[in-house]
Amino acid sequence: MKKKLLFLPFAICLFTCVSFAQTLAPGAPGKDAQWASAGKQGIGTSTTLESKIWFTLQGGALTEVYYPDVTVANVHKLEFVVVNPKTKKVETETGDANHQIKVLRPDSLTFQQINTAKSGAWKITKTYTTDVERDSVLIDVKFEPKNKDLNLYVYYDPSLGNTGMGDSAKLGLGFTENFEKGGKSSYLHIENSFVDADKAVIKEWTNGYYQVSDGLEQLRQYGKIVTQYSEATNGNVAQLAKIEKPSRFTIILSFADNYIRAKQTTSDSKNKGFVKCLAEYEKGWSDYVKTLRQVAPKYQAQFNMAAMVLKAQEDKTVRGANVASLTIPWGGGVNANGDVGGGYHLIWSRDLYHVVTAYMALGDLAAANRALNFLFNIQQKPDGSFPQNSQIDGKGGWGSLQLDEVAYPLIMAYQLKRFDKKTYENHVKRAADFLVKTGPKTPQERWEEKSGYSPSTIAAEIAGLVCAADIAKKNGDEASATIYLATADDWARNVDRWTATTTGKYGDGNYYLRLTENGTPDAGEKTVLNNNAGTFLESEIVDAGFLELVRLGIKPPDDPLIVKSLKIIDEKIKVNTPNGEAFYRYNNDGYGEMDDGRRWNWDGKYTGKGRLWALLSGERGQFEIAECGMRNAELKNNDRRPKTEDRCLSKAKARLDAMLNFANEGLMIPEQVWDKADVPKNIDKQFIPELKFGEGTGSATPLAWSMAQFIRLAVNLQEGRNIDTPAVVYNRFVKNGIPGQTGFNISSPDPNSLATLKAGEVFTVKGQAAPNSIIAAVLDDQRQSVKVSGDGKFSVTMKMSASETVGYLAIQTADGATFISPNKIGGSKKEEILSAEIIEKVKNSKQSPLIEGNKTIFIYRGAAKRVQLAGDFTGWQPRGAVLQDVGENLKAAIMEFPSTARIEYKFIIDENWIPDPMNPNKIDNGVGSENSFFTMPEYKPTSWDKDSDTFLDNTDFKSEILGGIRLVQTYVPSECVKNACPVLYFQDGTDYIKRSKAVQVQQSLVKANKIKPFIMVFVDPKERTKEYWASDDYAKFLATEIVPAIDAKYNTIKSRDGRAVLGASLGGITSVWVGLKYPEVFLRIGGQSSSFWIDNERVVKELSKLDASKTKFRFYFDDGGFEGVDDSRRVNVMLRGKGFPVTYREEFTGHNWTSWGDRLADAFIALWKN
Q: Rounded to an integer, what distance in angstroms lies between the CA atom of residue 1071 and that of residue 1163?
């Protein structure tokens, strides 16, 4: 580390100089440097830009002083020491006094510290201000000893340039020559104040190394300064001076880039005087507060303070750079010998977003725009992203990436109406493109600890992309707008399946998680929490980040999954404190003090225990505002929603009351709040304030995010609505419902051809989609938007960029359904060369494929120019799985599959589709004529389809509704002749009988006492696609013709509880439709590989309207891992969220009757449960 040799003089005046020897203090470099507790009780700076100095107050002392910007701390502590010369008793303000702090005016950052000795021997009162024209802090000091013989010393521990080591100090008397090295100096001046006759003078002083040779060590050993050291260099230095006649005096602490300027600054502030400096300082703040809105009197003082703190934490050189907090939580590390990375005095895009929303609530659009300008012009990276945090130059910081921080500037741009072309092209477009390319999985979520799928991060991403799309449209970029909206819609449709479990251990098992690493919340995966907090199942860790889905306008507040998850939050991470309800970030959090009072990171290994976060009460309050009947209110730009009654808002007001109560005496709202009545007795007071249940800890206080949340909640309560909810997002998703999913088919080129394109090549994408839809294509900087022709065809021609990239193709249909498809383009070789060992195995093999563990080697012998694979794993599309030449008339390819998979496939030999000639396993499985198939080592077929005798009652049923004759086959177990039995109605009846052996499966399950007997009715279609396209006529036919006929002929349970309906593929979606159209007839609904995609998910939209409190259903769904399971997973978690019992099964299989037969036993057991 580069050493800083910085000059830190005391300026001594108003007394006769004495000579002294130039002596260097011993004990370099001193003990480890530390920062003070982050639990600040006050902060201050002027409203002027000329004065670039900030002070903080904590524990009765002046703590970090920031200069020349808000990211550079230069002081550890300045306090007074009182010594009884007779008894040699030493008392410090920080360690031996009771502390009180007062806010002297409700319209100014004017603080007064009153420190009263626990011994009762003295009282010190200090009032703080800055010089509005200079870099000086002025402290008016009044010393009131009970015993006039007590001696008063000032103790100054500087830590220039964000580090406590590498500093140098000298004391200058009279005309003694002084010097400094480095880029910063501080100058401390003590003089008499006001009209006191007595003069405050200095006669004893010394420099030294912290807790080794500094003056305080001498006082504790001797009761006075016995050795004066003129300097202490290159270490953790501290200064001490005795003040003679210390009744009332002023301390001036000034900073500059060298000693001469620092001394001149002090002299100029001295000439102005404390009284005038304070008057100018307070007028600046008073004038600002006059511009603020009025809220309820109960909250006004805190509201004003929150607004002043946000303004104070903006840098005065780099405008718009608002730090998160002028603190270093718990000292930031084991020591402060080096730069600890800025503590919280850095700029986070996320924290700045919350500050901007507060500025907008205050009506300070100029400050809000300055903040966005900083993000766009200084912090944004060339690739469009934003760093985790940064210094004021946009550099430095902690080095990670959090995608909500990329999204928030897009929301800010929309809400601040930054629609100009320059902002769009240079900033909005780049950030939105980065989100599309990188999301939704984030390298870190908002708690800055874990990678994965986070509800709060995804909420920000969705909202940011919708806002970006609106700005893109305003700039005529329809292609980008379509890409952004299709991506946002896709993530809005899938956020629940990525982040909500249906198999959890809390409640009914269905709730949002804090985060999933791979977007598979039901996979039973484990997560290792930060801060040595332990290892848990992902489904065990919850936070309330999902509330951002409501605040940002993606979900209504009465969404069943939201409501259900809130109950888990209240059960797991809510605490009732004496000051109101508060919440942990998540259960088992490790970021906070230990139970015994040790600070976070006490061991240098980031160990701790998380406490309650004040701002989370405000987030809950905003949810409760949204909950107050706003779901159906139309939200438009600059429109006010109807105000809700105070009674409805009482819960949200209680949250504001809690935040009010969490603030300390100085009205600073903390990051964290102590969470229990038990208070440790041996806390480390260097880093932690006195801990009280429901009050702040040694975490960042004040936290800008907390202060901003208080302002936002107060204003939103006054408005009766959440004004920070982006209108364009709310209207798209809550008002109009999440758009359905559509799709398109690409006929050329295939993925292999795309992947082998070279720089400069021109290529054309051709395909089919819904007529009159809009197709958007994006490839790096190329943007195209085309309309699908009336016959459903489209083509887009683009030029390959210079390197490997990802292209995006999106669609929006006339009715608003969307879909997006990323495609890897370029950067790949045409083939991966097989190893000599594999080639030798291929040459010796007599069959195909060869299976070794998870690897499968496909082999083709014969003359052919090109052999390609298509099957379950390619969606039965020629997607570039090409066999390579390994010998004369011999080709092979190697692929990996899950160990439990069953797979059907074909070879495409020079465009001719055939089964694998070397594979004896072939089957006509109802999909694609005869296919080859193989199974992986751990695949387990059903064991319930054993052959047995069956008798079916066949009927040619004439339908008046559909017209013509339908074959209906009925299986009646012997037990159902005398006893009334439930009935299961099958679509594609003959296939279920012959291909999936449905009757045999029932018989085996009954014999094993897994289920009770039931009647089976197998109905065959006549025009399958037409009748099974979720047809109202077919539903009417089944419910009003077939069901009455069966009830009349057989001994059935004639109620909806005794009826179930089941089908596969289109038959599955039709079964769902029948149940939805005739809920009075069917209670139990099953679908295997259901075609939820039809008509842009028309049936899914109807399912989303269900209310479990009004209509009861039981659902069974399954799907094959090679089919595209996203829609089935979404439907599962959606219905579970609504409170319906749903059983969902998934295996690595394809779209065929063998697969459905394998899962048929699961379907029967699930449908007839209860």
A: 13
Q: Copy the structure tokens of residue 1083.
A: 């209670």
Strand partners for 187: 254
Task: Answer whether the bond into residue 440 is a cis peptide, omega within 30°.
Answer: yes
Asked if residue 201 lies in contact with residue 15, where contact means CB atoms within 8 angstroms, the answer is yes
pLDDT score recorded for residue 123:
98
Determine the pLDDT at residue 832. 60
**Range of lowest pLDDT (313-317, 323-327, 601-605):** 601-605
Report pLDDT for 184: 67
pLDDT of residue 168: 87
Distance between CA 843 and CA 1135 in Å, rounded?
Answer: 52
Paired strand residues for 61: 58
CA distance 577 to 672: 13
Question: CA-to-CA distance for 772 and 788, rounded, in angstroms?
Answer: 5
For the question of whether the overall pTM of this predicted structure is more than 0.90, the answer is yes
Which phi-psi region, left, alpha or beta, contains residue 440 (left: φ > 0; alpha: ψ -120 to 50)? alpha
Structure tokens that stand for 396 in this block: 């430095």
Token pair of 425, please?
A: 């092209």
Which tens digit of pLDDT belongs to each residue from 348-362?
A: 999 999 999 999 999
Cβ burial of 1009 (10 Å; 0-12, 13-18, 19+) is exposed
Distance in angstroms (rounded) separating the CA atoms of residues 585 and 454: 13
Contacts of 815 (CB under 8 A, 6+ apart): 740, 1096
Q: With the C-alpha atoms ordered 399, 404, 408, 410, is the resulting torsion angle positive or negative?
A: positive
CA distance 124 to 137: 18
What is d(CA 811, CA 777) in angstroms, rounded to the nearest whole number?
9
**Which domains can be identified in the chain, with CATH numbers?**
10-287 (2.70.98.10), 297-325+343-735 (1.50.10.10), 745-825 (2.60.40.10), 836-935 (2.60.40.10), 952-1167 (3.40.50.1820)
Q: What is the pLDDT of residues 676-722, one digit of tens each?
A: 998 888 788 788 888 999 999 999 999 999 999 999 999 999 999 99
- Position 1116: which residue type? Y
Q: What is the DSSP string of 21-72?
A: ---BPSSTT-SPP-PPPSB-SEEE--SSSS---EEEEETTEEEEEE-SSTT-
Using DSSP's 3-state secondary structure scheme, residue 1153 falls into helix
Nearest alpha carbon to residue 1102 among 1092, 1091, 1087: 1092
Contact assessment for residue 904 and residue 919, using Cβ atoms and an 8 Å cutoff: no
* Active-site amino acid positions: 445, 448
Question: Is pLDDT above 50 for 60?
Answer: yes
**Residues 509-544: pLDDT tens digits?**
999 999 999 999 999 999 999 999 999 999 999 999
Cβ atoms within 10 Å, residue 1025: 10
Distance, in Å, from the CA atom of 529 to the CA atom of 945, rounded to the nearest integer, reads: 46
pLDDT for 640 beyond 60: no
Check pLDDT > 90 for residue 1021: yes
Closest CA to 1157 of 966, 943, 955: 943
For residue 1144, the tally of other CB atoms under 10 A from its CB is 22
Spatial separation of the C-alpha atoms in residues 389 and 379, rounded to whole Å: 9
Q: Is the peptide bond before 29 cis (omega within 30 degrees of 0)?
A: yes
Residue 316, SS3 per DSSP: coil
Backbone φ, ψ for residue 288 (5° rounding): -65, -45
Identify the three-state secondary structure at position 73: strand
